[in-house]
What we know:
It is built from 9 helices and 9 strands. The chain is α/β, with parallel strands linked by helices and 212 residues long.
Amino acid sequence: SEVDIALVGDSHAEHLFVGLAEELPQRNIAYYILAALPTRSAGAEMSRVIDHVASSNTIDTVIVNAWWPYYEEIPIPELASTLNEFRASGKSVFVTDDIPDYPFDAVQCRYQAAPLLPFNTCAEDRVTDRERASSFYPSLVAAVEDAPGVRLLRTRDYFCDAGSCSMARDGRLLYRDSNHLNLNGSRFLAKSLLEGNNEFKNAVSASGQRTG
Protein backbone atom coordinates (compact mmCIF):
# COMPACT_ATOMS: atom_id res chain seq x y z
CA SER A 1 0.00 0.00 0.00
CA GLU A 2 1.00 3.64 -0.18
CA VAL A 3 3.38 4.94 2.49
CA ASP A 4 1.85 6.90 5.40
CA ILE A 5 4.88 7.60 7.59
CA ALA A 6 8.43 8.24 6.36
CA LEU A 7 11.61 7.79 8.38
CA VAL A 8 14.33 9.90 6.77
CA GLY A 9 18.04 10.09 7.59
CA ASP A 10 20.84 7.58 8.03
CA SER A 11 20.93 4.18 9.73
CA HIS A 12 19.71 5.84 12.93
CA ALA A 13 16.42 6.51 11.16
CA GLU A 14 16.30 2.86 10.15
CA HIS A 15 16.64 1.59 13.71
CA LEU A 16 13.32 3.27 14.57
CA PHE A 17 11.47 1.21 11.97
CA VAL A 18 10.64 -2.11 13.63
CA GLY A 19 9.30 -0.63 16.84
CA LEU A 20 7.05 1.89 15.12
CA ALA A 21 5.86 -0.61 12.51
CA GLU A 22 4.82 -3.06 15.21
CA GLU A 23 3.15 -0.40 17.36
CA LEU A 24 1.25 1.05 14.38
CA PRO A 25 0.10 -1.98 12.37
CA GLN A 26 -2.57 -0.01 10.48
CA ARG A 27 -0.02 2.48 9.16
CA ASN A 28 2.44 1.80 6.35
CA ILE A 29 5.89 2.97 7.41
CA ALA A 30 8.96 3.19 5.18
CA TYR A 31 12.52 4.30 5.80
CA TYR A 32 14.59 6.30 3.31
CA ILE A 33 18.21 6.21 4.39
CA LEU A 34 21.68 7.07 3.18
CA ALA A 35 24.96 7.43 5.02
CA ALA A 36 24.55 11.19 5.12
CA LEU A 37 22.71 14.05 6.75
CA PRO A 38 19.20 14.65 5.34
CA THR A 39 20.20 17.77 3.40
CA ARG A 40 20.52 18.50 -0.31
CA SER A 41 24.24 19.18 0.06
CA ALA A 42 24.64 15.47 0.82
CA GLY A 43 24.23 14.79 -2.90
CA ALA A 44 21.83 13.79 -5.64
CA GLU A 45 20.56 10.60 -3.97
CA MET A 46 19.52 12.43 -0.79
CA SER A 47 17.95 15.16 -2.91
CA ARG A 48 15.84 12.49 -4.61
CA VAL A 49 14.74 11.22 -1.21
CA ILE A 50 13.77 14.72 -0.11
CA ASP A 51 11.88 15.36 -3.36
CA HIS A 52 10.00 12.07 -3.14
CA VAL A 53 8.96 12.46 0.49
CA ALA A 54 8.05 16.14 0.15
CA SER A 55 5.93 15.58 -2.95
CA SER A 56 4.14 12.44 -1.75
CA ASN A 57 0.38 12.83 -1.43
CA THR A 58 0.10 9.88 0.94
CA ILE A 59 2.91 10.50 3.43
CA ASP A 60 1.37 12.55 6.23
CA THR A 61 4.11 12.23 8.86
CA VAL A 62 7.89 12.50 8.53
CA ILE A 63 10.36 11.54 11.27
CA VAL A 64 13.93 12.73 10.71
CA ASN A 65 16.80 11.15 12.59
CA ALA A 66 20.56 10.71 12.21
CA TRP A 67 23.63 9.94 14.23
CA TRP A 68 24.12 13.66 14.73
CA PRO A 69 27.51 13.64 16.54
CA TYR A 70 29.02 11.53 13.74
CA TYR A 71 29.02 14.52 11.40
CA GLU A 72 31.53 17.29 11.88
CA GLU A 73 28.89 19.97 11.62
CA ILE A 74 25.13 20.22 11.19
CA PRO A 75 24.46 22.88 8.54
CA ILE A 76 21.59 24.71 10.20
CA PRO A 77 20.11 26.48 7.12
CA GLU A 78 20.26 23.31 5.00
CA LEU A 79 18.65 21.05 7.58
CA ALA A 80 16.01 23.69 8.26
CA SER A 81 15.36 23.88 4.51
CA THR A 82 14.70 20.13 4.36
CA LEU A 83 12.32 20.33 7.29
CA ASN A 84 10.50 23.28 5.75
CA GLU A 85 10.11 21.39 2.47
CA PHE A 86 8.42 18.55 4.33
CA ARG A 87 6.18 20.98 6.21
CA ALA A 88 5.21 22.93 3.08
CA SER A 89 2.95 20.11 1.90
CA GLY A 90 1.13 19.95 5.22
CA LYS A 91 2.94 16.99 6.74
CA SER A 92 3.56 16.56 10.46
CA VAL A 93 7.34 16.65 10.90
CA PHE A 94 9.36 15.47 13.88
CA VAL A 95 13.11 15.43 14.49
CA THR A 96 14.61 13.24 17.18
CA ASP A 97 17.75 14.01 19.14
CA ASP A 98 18.61 10.32 18.68
CA ILE A 99 19.99 8.06 21.42
CA PRO A 100 23.09 8.10 23.61
CA ASP A 101 26.17 6.54 22.05
CA TYR A 102 28.91 4.86 24.03
CA PRO A 103 32.68 4.37 23.88
CA PHE A 104 32.16 0.61 24.25
CA ASP A 105 30.31 -2.01 22.23
CA ALA A 106 27.04 -3.68 23.19
CA VAL A 107 28.83 -7.01 23.50
CA GLN A 108 30.52 -5.64 26.62
CA CYS A 109 27.13 -5.00 28.16
CA ARG A 110 25.69 -8.33 26.98
CA TYR A 111 28.41 -10.27 28.73
CA GLN A 112 29.08 -7.98 31.66
CA ALA A 113 28.42 -10.78 34.15
CA ALA A 114 30.93 -13.12 32.53
CA PRO A 115 33.71 -13.91 35.03
CA LEU A 116 36.45 -13.45 32.42
CA LEU A 117 35.24 -9.93 31.54
CA PRO A 118 35.16 -8.14 34.89
CA PHE A 119 35.39 -4.58 33.58
CA ASN A 120 32.44 -4.58 31.21
CA THR A 121 29.64 -2.13 31.65
CA CYS A 122 26.30 -1.02 30.25
CA ALA A 123 26.15 2.58 31.47
CA GLU A 124 27.87 5.91 31.23
CA ASP A 125 27.64 9.02 33.38
CA ARG A 126 24.85 11.40 32.31
CA VAL A 127 27.24 14.36 32.45
CA THR A 128 29.49 12.64 29.90
CA ASP A 129 26.55 12.08 27.56
CA ARG A 130 25.52 15.73 27.85
CA GLU A 131 29.05 16.81 27.03
CA ARG A 132 29.03 14.61 23.93
CA ALA A 133 25.62 15.91 22.89
CA SER A 134 26.80 19.52 23.24
CA SER A 135 28.74 19.08 19.98
CA PHE A 136 25.50 18.96 17.95
CA TYR A 137 22.57 19.90 20.15
CA PRO A 138 22.61 23.69 19.71
CA SER A 139 22.72 23.32 15.91
CA LEU A 140 19.93 20.73 15.90
CA VAL A 141 17.70 22.93 18.05
CA ALA A 142 18.45 25.95 15.88
CA ALA A 143 17.48 24.07 12.71
CA VAL A 144 14.19 22.95 14.25
CA GLU A 145 13.45 26.47 15.46
CA ASP A 146 14.01 27.74 11.90
CA ALA A 147 11.31 25.36 10.66
CA PRO A 148 7.97 26.51 12.11
CA GLY A 149 5.68 23.67 13.07
CA VAL A 150 8.45 21.06 13.30
CA ARG A 151 8.77 19.38 16.69
CA LEU A 152 11.89 18.05 18.43
CA LEU A 153 11.50 14.67 20.13
CA ARG A 154 13.90 14.30 23.05
CA THR A 155 14.42 10.58 22.67
CA ARG A 156 17.79 10.48 24.45
CA ASP A 157 16.01 11.02 27.75
CA TYR A 158 14.28 7.65 27.56
CA PHE A 159 17.65 5.93 27.97
CA CYS A 160 18.86 8.06 30.87
CA ASP A 161 18.03 8.94 34.45
CA ALA A 162 19.48 11.75 36.54
CA GLY A 163 22.80 10.00 37.00
CA SER A 164 23.52 7.84 33.99
CA CYS A 165 22.55 6.60 30.52
CA SER A 166 22.38 2.88 29.81
CA MET A 167 22.14 0.55 26.83
CA ALA A 168 20.11 -1.93 28.91
CA ARG A 169 16.79 -1.74 30.70
CA ASP A 170 15.20 -4.25 33.10
CA GLY A 171 17.83 -6.83 32.25
CA ARG A 172 17.37 -6.52 28.48
CA LEU A 173 20.01 -5.26 26.07
CA LEU A 174 18.65 -2.42 23.90
CA TYR A 175 21.64 -1.87 21.59
CA ARG A 176 23.25 -3.93 18.83
CA ASP A 177 26.57 -2.03 18.90
CA SER A 178 27.81 1.20 20.46
CA ASN A 179 25.26 3.47 18.79
CA HIS A 180 22.43 1.48 17.13
CA LEU A 181 19.32 0.01 18.71
CA ASN A 182 18.57 -3.67 18.41
CA LEU A 183 15.00 -5.01 18.15
CA ASN A 184 14.46 -4.67 21.91
CA GLY A 185 15.64 -1.07 21.76
CA SER A 186 13.52 -0.16 18.76
CA ARG A 187 10.42 -1.54 20.46
CA PHE A 188 11.28 0.16 23.74
CA LEU A 189 11.74 3.55 22.08
CA ALA A 190 8.57 3.32 19.99
CA LYS A 191 6.48 2.39 23.00
CA SER A 192 8.09 5.15 25.08
CA LEU A 193 7.34 7.75 22.41
CA LEU A 194 3.73 6.73 21.98
CA GLU A 195 3.12 6.61 25.73
CA GLY A 196 5.07 9.75 26.57
CA ASN A 197 4.28 12.24 23.80
CA ASN A 198 0.62 12.84 22.92
CA GLU A 199 1.41 15.19 20.04
CA PHE A 200 3.52 12.53 18.38
CA LYS A 201 0.98 9.79 19.12
CA ASN A 202 -1.84 11.83 17.61
CA ALA A 203 0.18 12.55 14.46
CA VAL A 204 1.28 9.00 13.73
CA SER A 205 -2.13 7.58 14.65
CA ALA A 206 -3.96 10.05 12.40
CA SER A 207 -7.52 9.38 11.34
CA GLY A 208 -8.14 8.05 7.87
CA GLN A 209 -5.66 5.22 8.32
CA ARG A 210 -5.28 2.85 5.41
CA THR A 211 -5.53 -0.86 6.08
CA GLY A 212 -3.53 -2.16 3.13
